[in-house]
Amino acid sequence: MEIILRILFLLTLLHNVLVNGQIYDVLKFGAKGDGVSDDSKAFVKAWSVMCGCGGNNSTLLIPSNKTFLLQPLIFQRPCISPSVQVKFDGKIVAPINKAAWLKYKLLRWVSFTEINGLTIIGSGTIHGRGSSFWEQLHFQRCNDLKIIGITSFNSPKNHISINECKRVTITEIKLVAPHDSPNTDGIDISESSNIDIYDTVIGTGDDCVAINNGSMNINITRMNCGPGHGISVGSLGRDGEQSMVENVQVTNCTFFRTDNGARIKTWPNGKGYARNILFKSLKFTETKNPIIIDQNYVDKGRIDVEESAVAISNVTFTDISGTSWFDEIIKLDCSKVTYCKDIVLDKIDIATTDGNTPIVQCTNVYGKSINAHEVDGCFKR
Ligand SMILES: *[C@@H]1O[C@H](CO)[C@@H](O)[C@H](O)[C@H]1NC(C)=O
Ligand SMILES: *[C@@H]1O[C@H](CO)[C@@H](O)[C@H](O)[C@H]1NC(C)=O
Ligand SMILES: *[C@@H]1O[C@H](CO)[C@@H](O)[C@H](O)[C@H]1NC(C)=O
Ligand SMILES: *[C@@H]1O[C@H](CO)[C@@H](O)[C@H](O)[C@H]1NC(C)=O
Ligand SMILES: *[C@@H]1O[C@H](CO)[C@@H](O)[C@H](O)[C@H]1NC(C)=O
Ligand SMILES: *[C@@H]1O[C@H](CO)[C@@H](O)[C@H](O)[C@H]1NC(C)=O
Ligand SMILES: *[C@@H]1O[C@H](CO)[C@@H](O)[C@H](O)[C@H]1NC(C)=O
For residue 121, what are the contacts with CB-CB under 8 A and spacing of at least 6? Predict the structure, then answer.
């Protein structure tokens, strides 16, 4: 009996060694890595073999010193393996020829759908080449996701979008796009919770991070943001939608020549809330609008009768310093329907680039300031 048990134990061990921690190199699945051949099929094949094996911690290897040309593709379940890793060290490029893309209706390039326990790690680079696509890397319903180390260049639209994911860590990544490229958000988060983003560098033509409806427990720290539109909650409540964002902490970040810094923007006539938001220890260099709440975010020329608004409350701006390109260092333009409530301005030390007296403009704001006397007049009593 004992011998049988021992043999069974050894067999299990052997099985685990065979299925766990295996490496699936895309080159072994037919990828050329010459930057010209279409390697999409090889990637999908390597992925599905890996996912089918059921082992823990299997690795899809995208090796260094190779350039892989990929069409839009989706990595999706079923992935039997409870945790998978993509060791991404090479270079991935989009086709230059836009015609090659036209037959795809998806507005995404590389998507991961319903993969739990996914880690993408390495020194790899993704080159969107500004193709006519939306999101560069799209993650939907991926719980326990980690993205570590990679660099993304010239995404045509959002670089990384996170939708309906729980427990996400993003660190040591770099996202780069020209300052004048439209809608190239760095990281776009929606309907997701428990997101930790730290030690990142993002310079794009739009928001470094956009935190949208259904997001909660979001921490962003030690981000170098710029150029771009800063770190934004919203826009929320478009077309009367109900939007909820709560528990957001943005700390120890720097902003270099961004259009905005710490921003919350909502459309008139939305519903829901944005609350429990902390912007702490932020440094600005020549930022146009360092601190801004905009509850009148509308397309030009649109007239709205305001009947409701996304309610903004418990928002703290503290230890904020640096220089503002415009004289208006703080603009809190809140809804007359909901007002902004429990707003705290604390230790604000922002000078204007041209040496003019800083201007603080507040409408419909309840709250207080500590150690920031120049903004005392901001609040309703
Ligand atoms: C994989 O990990 C899970 C949870 O840690 C464990 O239950 C399962 O037995 C492991 N599978 C293999 C093949 O080792
Ligand atoms: C997963 O595998 C990688 C290398 O393939 C290794 O570095 C890592 O420590 C492994 N993680 C676990 C939890 O076994
Ligand atoms: C990639 O190229 C660099 C520089 O040429 C070399 O040092 C390195 O060993 C190469 N790596 C691989 C995996 O071939
Ligand atoms: C965010 O930071 C707070 C305070 O430092 C911590 O309590 C919380 O667990 C963090 N949340 C995430 C998702 O990392
Ligand atoms: C906003 O997010 C919530 C929570 O995830 C979701 O139930 C709702 O459908 C979203 N609203 C819109 C308009 O997308
Ligand atoms: C921010 O920086 C301060 C001072 O260096 C440090 O004490 C604090 O722990 C940092 N906060 C985070 C969330 O990294
Ligand atoms: C206000 O928001 C902060 C996060 O910035 C949170 O720690 C605190 O609990 C919130 N206060 C209330 C009363 O909800």
Answer: 85, 86, 87, 88, 146, 147, 148, 149, 150
